[in-house]
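Sequence in, structure out.
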Amino acid sequence: MPKKIALIHIRLMNKGGLETRLINYMNYFLSLGHEVTIITSKISGEIELPKDVHLIKIDLSAYPKFIRHLFFNYKLEKTLEENTFDYTLSLERTWSQDNLIAPNTHIGFLKAQDKWWRNPSDMIQLYLDKKSFRNAKNIFACSQMVKEEIVNEYNIDATKIKVVFPPLNTQKFNLQERAKQKEYLEKYNIDISKINFLFVSTSHKRKGLDLLMEIFSKKENEDKHLYIAGSTAQYKQKNIHSLGFVNNTNELYVCVDATLHPAVYEPYGQIISESIACGTRVIVSDKVGAKEIIKNKELGEIIPANDLEAWSYAIVHFEKKASIPEEILQSITKELSLENHMCKLISKKVN
């Protein structure tokens, strides 16, 4: 079991999935009595680290923004040479640590957009991917889809890549939230007698909102309601509702009948595991990494991305059901728990 831990990420702040995981990792290792060092560049003023956490800040202020990730790597390499750690884990595409979190691949992102022209920023991102994947001893891919991208697109040995789903905040996303459903329905003005769907995103084009807009704008779907969390745009259709940014999406999951995620590319999709944990079924595209946790029809349905006819059929013929049974959720929430996630990260065996 490691004693001196180094956690690496270019940003240290209280927002963003990876940034949240950095804080969770820090607290987990501290709870086990280990010595934790965080190596970063940008620190938010709202962050207060525990007194026993060591902080190494790499100054990148002298470099243009689009090349800062490169120089973070160069300086990180020297930093790790000057210090001794038992376990090094990076949430950034860096090439000097032993263990690497892989939440996506840039080439997968580009291909999903049919983008073949490479600008200088893309070239840097691809270079960071390639070198970090080659140098890491262990790679923790967020889904089997991402693992296959790393193997096939970057020619990386599959034996050093382990699929480890992102951890779920089971304290926030759980079946107990349904006890407050009436309160949440009133808060968001949602009519439970209707068939209601939820779409959560701040990156609408890649996440497939255009497809949903076309479906819910059809006359035969007037009785189906779509609630969009993450957009302030106003829509003419009476059955399409913009909620703006919603921090507590757990409140929304228990108000709707299904969460929709028709993304053309989503390496994992945290909203899928969150929705399921709250007992709400999901309908996702086959380009969403989190489809791998949908192991039976009680949890949801997987539909080809961009297949307008198939998505229309699923929404038109959707039937209300009770929330996902608790016994079905137990194994999923256990698999996605922070404790199980961390055990996989610190295991020496990589399958």
